[in-house]
Design goal:
Bound molecules: S-adenosyl-L-homocysteine, iron/sulfur cluster
Radius of gyration: 21 Å
CATH superfamily of the largest domain: Aldolase class I
CATH topology of the largest domain: TIM Barrel
Strand order of the largest sheet: 3-4-5-6-9-10-11-12-13-14
Largest sheet: 10 strands, mixed
Helix content: 25-40%
Number of strands: 14
CATH architecture of the largest domain: Alpha-Beta Barrel
Shape: globular
Number of helices: 12
């Protein structure tokens, strides 16, 4: 049976057309499924009873199973969501005074092996479907709606104001499904988020960045983490394929269509690895022709990572060098640490198909 959560509005209209139904049904369905969070065809009152019965026979609106929901002391929430019997992914909601941000996963694991990332350590199983990606928003909405005492969200109301594609996986490595899911996020009949409030974070897959700028130019964050190729080759290995010069040029091309007039460079602060004064100066030089802001992320440790978090005074000096060079710099607050919901700690459950974990465990045992 077809899961209607896999379709954006034009695809749903096509599906209805094939059933001999009017395309405007797609708009109604999108509103019920996504805006109101109603998944039972019976409750879709502006759809004729005969059509509701037909829909129930031929289609389903099915969310994946929530295996665990945890709430941190600071209000951060994490959902462990079953992708299939062997695999689970994680989704995190971060409440702040002026916004509510949902951090969404795009893959089960990640194939890219950044050395400081817990998801990368776990290996890779598969891409998430459109339904599995957008369901994370639907599941979080459902839970937050219930918490706020609503059965159905009033028209126009929104609890989640921002989405960041910064959970498990490299979103641009699951390009088609991620773009379709983001189109649903932006659809006024679904979640109605503006392009400025949806941020995709990439480790720097240059050709896909060029494609994204044409297909769905949302706000862009780039995981830089090193100011020179020699270091970035080691900690963000995709750099060997798309080195810094190419990455900087791709950022500039993206800015032609970006909803904000800057790219955010994420930079995880690893003690003694990438956090010296020299690194800060190299960084200023590297980005000199790109309109950008910086987001420094204190490294969040996980077992056997082999890395430490930069010392507070080193982080301060590093930040000040960037600020003195005229850049806006934010230092990411670590949220939800008590429930392992912080950046880079998302682990879920990954049945590794790459055999990477087995190899590492064997090496560690020597
Ligand atoms: N794959 C994408 C998006 C997911 S990771 C990317 O790499 O951009 C989201 C951010 O968390 C990235 O900047 C990533 O490098 C960072 N991150 C990964 N592991 C981390 C850790 N242990 N501590 C802090 N940040 C981490
Ligand atoms: Fe994958 Fe991003 Fe982790 Fe690198 S940092 S391994 S690209 S999830």
């Amino acid at each position: 049976m077809v899961n209607l959560l896999n379709f954006n509005q034009p695809q749903l209209a096509q599906w209805f057309a094939k059933q001999g139904e009017k395309p405007f049904r797609a708009k109604q369905l999108m509103r019920w499924m996504h805006h109101f969070g109603v998944h039972d065809f019976e409750r879709m009152t502006d759809i004729a009873k005969v059509l509701r019965e037909k829909l129930a026979m031929e289609a389903e609106i099915t969310l994946p199973h929530v295996q665990l929901e945890q709430v941190s002391n600071d209000g951060t929430r994490k959902w462990l969501i079953g992708a299939d019997t062997a695999n689970s992914i994680e989704t995190v909601f971060i409440p702040e005074d002026d916004r509510g941000t949902l951090c969404i996963s795009s893959q089960v694991g990640c194939a890219l092996e950044c050395t400081f990332c817990s998801t990368g350590r776990q290996g890779f199983n598969r891409n998430l479907s459109v339904a599995e990606i957008i369901s994370q928003l639907a599941i979080a909405n459902r839970s937050l709606r219930q918490e706020a005492g609503y059965d159905m969200l009033p028209a126009g109301e929104r609890i989640i104001s921002n989405v960041v594609m910064m959970g498990m996986g490299e979103p641009l490595a699951n390009y088609d499904n991620v773009v379709t899911a983001m189109q649903i996020m932006l659809d006024d009949n679904a979640y109605g988020l503006s392009r400025r409030r949806v941020t995709l974070s990439t480790s720097g897959m240059v050709p896909a960045m060029d494609k994204l700028k044409e297909d769905c130019p949302v706000a862009l964050a780039v995981s830089l983490h090193a100011p020179n190729d020699a270091l970035r080759d080691v900690i963000v290995p995709i750099n060997k394929k798309y080195p810094l010069k190419e990455l900087m040029a791709a950022c500039n091309r993206y800015l032609e269509k970006a909803p904000r007039d800057f790219v955010t460079f994420e930079y995880v602060m690893l003690d003694g690895v990438n956090d010296t004064v020299e690194h800060a100066h190299q960084l200023v030089d590297l980005v000199k022709n790109v309109s950008c802001k910086f987001n420094l992320i204190p490294f969040n440790p996980f077992p056997n990572s082999g890395y430490g978090t930069s010392k507070a005074n080193h982080m301060r000096v590093f930040r000040d060098i960037l600020m003195q060079a005229g850049y806006v710099v934010t230092v990411r607050k670590t949220r939800g640490e008590d429930i392992d919901a912080a950046c880079g700690q998302l682990a879920g459950k990954v049945l590794d198909k790459t055999k990477r974990t087995a190899t590492r465990i064997a090496i560690e045992a020597i």
